[in-house]
Amino acid sequence: MILTIPVLLYQLLFVVILVVAHRLGRAWLNVAAGLCLLWTATHVFFLPLAVLQATVIVTTYFVLRRRAGATR
Fold it and tell me: What pTM value is reported for the model?
């Protein structure tokens, strides 16, 4: 099973990274999202896990980006 507690906590780490980067500014959010996706592409070789992780990163990025646009 792919959705174990350690996997979910690892996904939460990427959400936290992106939230912190969002608080620092849009440029930081863009860089952090790119680096997280690069990390996924180079370090995760199990395809279902890579897809899950990339989905979490991209979804978090777009949610935070939309939220930033709504507050400005």
Answer: 0.91
